[in-house]
Design a protein that fits this description.
By secondary structure, the protein is α/β, with parallel strands linked by helices. Helices cover about 35% and strands about 25% of the residues. It folds into two domains: about 170 residues, no CATH class; about 180 residues, Rossmann fold (3-Layer(aba) Sandwich). Helix 6 packs across helix 8 and helix 10 runs parallel beside helix 12. The longest helix is centred in the middle third of the chain and has 19 residues. The chain starts with a strand and ends in a 7-residue tail after the last strand.
Amino acid sequence: MIRPASKTSSIGPNPLSFVFQYNPEMLTHTFSSSKYEEAITQENKQSAADRIIELINLNLELDATDQLEQPNLREEIVAYGLHPSLATLESILLAQNSKSSIVLFTWGPNRSIPVSIENVKIFEMAFDTKLNPIRAKTELTMRVLDLSDFRKGSRGYALCLLHSDRRSFFIKKHGDGNTPNVSFAKKIVPRHGWNDIVLPIERKEQLREICNYAKNYAKTFDKHTRRKGLNILFSGPSGTGKTLAAEIIASALKYDVYKIDLSMVVSKYIGETEKNLNKIFKDAEDLNAVLFFEEADALFGKRSEVKDSHDRYANIEVNYLLQKMEENEVIVILATNTSEKIDEAFVRRMNFIVDFSSPNRD
């Protein structure tokens, strides 16, 4: 069912409703990342600059031929055919241009979604003797509205929050055991944006450059060395915003952050560390993930001269990690209190190095 709802009440005083005569056999959802140029509120312009656009496509069939067999029960069908139903759909399309209305697409008890009807095609395929349409087919394309389409605190904003909460509810119902995850890592869902971090302008621009580079990831990876991984080094004292910066990058890319617990990765048993690293990268390769190694020098510190078997295997672990970082299309962020502790081989393989200095009073 499709209906326009008043922005000041849950449904509106006299809502128009277009009820599907038959449920469509299929709904098609199309997701794309795009710079949406439609007029939006100034308040949300920055958050809407890069967002996921969801389109819903469906085909509807309307058939009044059965109802014409009972003319005493459906006099309006006899008199007008499908004109009232089609006029209602057209009126809803016009109503969405009014600032006082929101169009809701209701599909069962678990989906009531604020939408914008982007395209409507109506095919009138059969007529009665008065040329009233009695069979018709409709193709609808709707864009799912999100928070950036509305002013914060408005009715539309609240409806989008409800839709988002419902999606989160279904994700939770899917079961923690079936939720994709990365071994030895804590998943962090990004909740911060650019306005939440205080950095020098040039440092912030460097983070934005990383985001732009990552968005063109498949096109820009080094075709000469065949490096696929995007590797970033964050260097600076504790409390200077390294973790927050990783979260903001992930948020801008619509990724999740997986914070690696190094204490569980490094093993004293020969071969176990490589096995653990392999599992981390294997789990992450099919996810939109940022792997965040905090205090990375614990694992990626300078390689030592080989004096015994322990040194030899420690260096094997380092080389193995270098290999994994380069051959997997994963974003890796290494965080350290000082870049001097990181092996030079790692530093040379970094696509970006960001220095987080302690903020001064100025």
